[in-house]
Amino acid sequence: MSGTKCTRLSGSLVKQLLDSVDSVLFDCDGVIWRGDQVIPGAPQVINLLKEHGKKVFFVTNNSSKTRRMYAEKMSTLGFSVTEEEVFGTAYCCAMYLKTTCRLEGKVYLIGSSAMRQELEAVGIQQTGVGPDHVLGKQSDWAGVPLDPEVRAVVVGFDEHFSYMKLNRALQYLLQKDCLFVGTNRDNRLPLEGGKAVPGTGCLLQAVETAAQRRAQTVGKPNHFMFDCVASQFGVQRERCLMVGDRLDTDILLGSNCGLKTLLTLTGVSTVADAEANWESGCTERQGMVPDYYVESIADLLPALQA
After folding, report:
1. What is the spatial distance between Cα 262 and Cα 233, in angstroms, rounded to a whole number?
2. What average pLDDT is seen over the chain?
3. What's the Cα-to-Cα distance from 12 to each of 9, 19, 90, 271, 300, rounded to whole Å?
4. Which of the two residues, 2 and 281, has the higher pLDDT score?
5. What are phi and psi of 93, to 5 degrees?
6. Which of 12, 117, 146, 236 holds its CA 20 to 30 A away from the CA of 168?
7. Model-level pTM?
8. 44, exposed or middle or buried, with CB in 10 Å at 0-12, 13-18, 19+?
9. Distances in Å between the alpha carbon of 155 and those of 27, 64, 144, 173, 300?
10. The dihedral formed by the CA atoms of 100, 105, 110 and 116, expressed in degrees to the nearest 10
11. Omega of the bond prior to 198 within 30 degrees of 0, cis?
12. What is the pLDDT of residue 2?
């Protein structure tokens, strides 16, 4: 392992790192909480960073909640936060369609009611939320009714994902001018006790396979999520730290955007995973090696309390 990568962050090095940044981006699940349980010390770290004049933001690939829902959860857990500091893929997807794509028309949405709310908040109408059951015979399915105003297919986490939704998405995407956007490519959502459930990446790959097209994703590790934060709050990449528990999303986002990176071991990835990435010799995998690691973000507390 290189002497400048994956260094354990402790002692005077903590203050040195914090003094070198003005802004800190935090992933949520596995970093500041696990499920509905707060990581011990996390609220104090976030609140003290703000007291020290740092800008703090939260970037999550979870598309099942609006910014407001996240801010309410954080407040309940003891974090001092506003919804403007939260950047989830539901919100970022809406911003991408509005500002980058300048979408004129509706969205066929495979996603949650939270995604619908974020789309409607920026003036984009959608169709598709909720169950879509199989009707008729197989010969009828290619002729399912389509909304002529739809100009984009968007795929996020959808507990009602079904064969008919997959089919309807395909029919829209056969139109070459129909945009194709996904929130993220996380294939599994880790749960407590080593359990997991399928993630949005599974749904997105199914639609990509059917349509024989590749979606543009807006979530980590794509740089758009950082661009969203930077454009609204004037964040300078060379003075920004990304803190996360996943090498393939959080740390890679930091590498892609030229940020300092810190891995916390309270979630998915391990130091052994980072070492394997470095030793692989693969440039892409080496982008998934953090600058520093800590057991928990609570390890930052002594420096903040000094």
Report:
1. 21
2. 96
3. 9, 11, 38, 21, 11
4. 281
5. -65, -45
6. 117
7. 0.95
8. middle
9. 21, 12, 19, 12, 37
10. 80
11. no
12. 53
Catalytic residue, candidates 19, 22, 27, 248: 27
Give residue-wise pLDDT tens across range 42-70: 999 999 999 999 999 999 999 999 999 99
Burial 47-65 (b: 16+ CB within 10 A, else e): bbbbeeebbbbbbbbbbbb
| Residue 203: closest CA among 190, 221, 215 | 215
pLDDT band per the 50, 70, 90 thresholds, residue 184: very high
Task: Supply the pLDDT for residue 1.
Answer: 59
Q: What is the pLDDT of residue 97?
A: 98
Residue 193: predicted pLDDT:
80
Q: Which residues pair with 294 in a beta bridge?
A: 264
CB 210 within 8 A of CB 217: no
Q: 29 an active-site residue?
A: yes
CA-nearest of 91, 161, 96, 152 to 127 is 152
Query: Is 36 noted as a catalytic residue in this protein?
Result: no
pLDDT in tens, 193-251: 888 899 999 999 999 999 999 999 999 999 999 999 999 999 999 999 999 999 999 99
Give the chain's radius of gyration (CA, Å). 20
Q: Which amino acid is at 43?
A: P
pLDDT value at residue 113:
97
CB count within 10 Å of CB 11 equals 10
Q: Considering the candidates 29, 132, 158, 245, report the single residue annotated as catalytic.
A: 29
CA atoms within 13 A on the CB side of 139: 0
